[in-house]
Structure formats: C-alpha cells, structure tokens
Amino acid sequence: MEVMLRNMFQALGKSRSANRLAKKYGLRFGAARFVAGETIKQSIDAVRKLNEDGRIATLDHLGEFVFSEEEARESAEMCIQTLDAIASSGVTSNLSLKMTSLGLDISRELCMSNMRRILTRARTHNNFVRIDMEDYAHCQVSLDIYEELRKEFDNVGIVIQAYLYRTEQDIEHLNALGANLRLVKGAYKESPDVAFPEKKDVDDNLKRIIQQHMKNGNYTAVASHDPAIIDFTKAFVQVEGISKERFEFQMLYGICEDLQKQLVQEGYRVRVYVPYGVDWFGYFMRRLAERPANVWFVLKNMFK
C-alpha cells in the first residue's frame, strides 16, 4: 500500500491538469501545513515566527510548470521580490529556487540570464541562494550551470542527492569549488539504473557523503528529519572536532517541529525550508510521497 501511494502521489505531482485544479481550489486538504501561503507577505510572516524561537529559514517561491520565456522571467522576478522582502523585513532567511522555474527546459541561456539577475540582487543584499536539485534528467546540466556561476558568484550553493550512484564523485569534483552543499536523500522517483532502490543503501550513502563533504572542509547543510542521520552527524562532528559554525541542520516547514526546536536548544543552527506560492501542488505531492504519516494527516483534515 505504501509503495502504491508513493507512486500515485509522485505521478500526480507531475500532472499539469492536477496542478491547474490545485491552483483553482487553493491550499486545502492539509497543504497549508507544509506550504507557508500563496503570497510573499504570508511567507515572511512564517519566517518571522521561526526566527522568534531561534530558527532561520530559506524561502522558496514554488513553481515547476513553466512553459514560456515570459513565465520564466515572471518566476525570476518573484525570486528578486522575495530577496527584497527578506531585506526590507529584517527576517533571517536566504533563498532556494528550482532552475526549471527559471526556464531551464526552454533554454540554458534564458535560465543563466535569470540566475545572474537573482544572484546579483542577492549579493546586493548580502544574501545567499541555494539551487534545488531536481530529477535525474536535470542533474548534470544543473551541476554544469552551478560550476559556471561559481566563477562569478560566491553566494550560491546547490543540493546533492544521496540516492544517486554518482553522488560521491560529484562531491569530490565540487570540492575544488569550495561548494556549499545541502545533502539530502532525494525525493524523486528514479530508475534503479541511476539510483539506489533500497532505503538502507540511501541512508548509508548519505552518511558517507556527510563525512566526505565535512572532511573536505566545506560548509555542509544536512537536510534530514531522520533521527538516526541527525545523531550520526552530531557524533561525527564531535569526534572530528568540527565547529557548529561549519554546518547546519535543515528541515521542511511543518515537519518535525519539536525536533527542530530541540536542536536549536542544543545550540545547533537549524534552517527551515519554507515554500510559498500558487504553484504548490508538485511540492505537496512529493511531501506526501515521502512520508506515509503525511498522508494520514491530510486524510484526517479532509474528514474534519
């Protein structure tokens, strides 16, 4: 049943018609737990509340269904407005984005132009931008673009997914750039030809790449809600004498709130990934696919 539900939600997340219906009916059926709202103001308010108890954030204006240059530029403009809102409000947050929302599937040149605009504005505000990794089809081009951008900007990082076989080699290559990486398990449905099909293998690889990237001396964002991964990281940095200034834990908005607050109380830096926007459906479906507990939460809301 769990596998069937996961496959169903992953398929729905890629459906254009389902996305259109979601835009029409808004953040219902429990999505508001995982998405901070549809407007910049709502997202800034959510970040301010996180900041009040010591958590920092990364804001993401959701958008994965971009089919024209105009839509891609509008998405880039929303990223710039988000950076401006962070600066003017005084909240502590940086920005995450998906390059497909900036026109990557339309043309690389369009995406690069939008990325340069965003990173230039972020640099003006002394802020940082994280490129989210998407499915395997976009992996190499995303890394290529990141490498090109790092020649011009030092305020940009990227995400690396532990479920891909290629990950250790990618991290070693990125070491030469002094890359600031967010390390995750991975949330897309991928072929066993390119990704570990078994959870244990993914978990083991995540532990390996946490060690690898930290030993390379580069800033590391460990993005996981798994207590075993978090405990592993805490034990590893203690043994290696790695300062708490050289890494952070990252978690998703609305998930494991108690654990987030506990880590803050223990003196760790905790950054919460805060998504917002009208194009929330694909993100929401991946959250349901990741954790069966999320499905039951939504079902309970539907019957209230």
Automatic annotation (TrEMBL):
InterPro entries on file: FAD-linked_oxidoreductase-like (IPR029041), PRODH_bac_arc (IPR008219), Proline_DH_dom (IPR002872), Proline_oxidase (IPR015659)
TM region(s), chain numbering: none
Top class in the EC scheme: oxidoreductase
PANTHER family linked to this entry: PROLINE DEHYDROGENASE 1, MITOCHONDRIAL (PTHR13914:SF0), PROLINE OXIDASE (PTHR13914)
Designated name of the protein: proline dehydrogenase
Entry keyword annotation includes Aminoacyl-tRNA synthetase: no
Domain Proline dehydrogenase: 45-298
Sorted UniProt keywords: FAD, Flavoprotein, Nucleotide-binding, Oxidoreductase, Proline metabolism
Catalysed reactions, semicolon-separated: L-proline + a quinone = (S)-1-pyrroline-5-carboxylate + a quinol + H(+)
Needed cofactors: FAD
Gene3D superfamilies in the cross-refs: 3.20.20.220
EC number: 1.5.5.2
Record pathway: Amino-acid degradation; L-proline degradation into L-glutamate; L-glutamate from L-proline: step 1/2
Record has Nucleotide-binding as a keyword: yes
Entry-linked Pfam families: Pro_dh (PF01619)
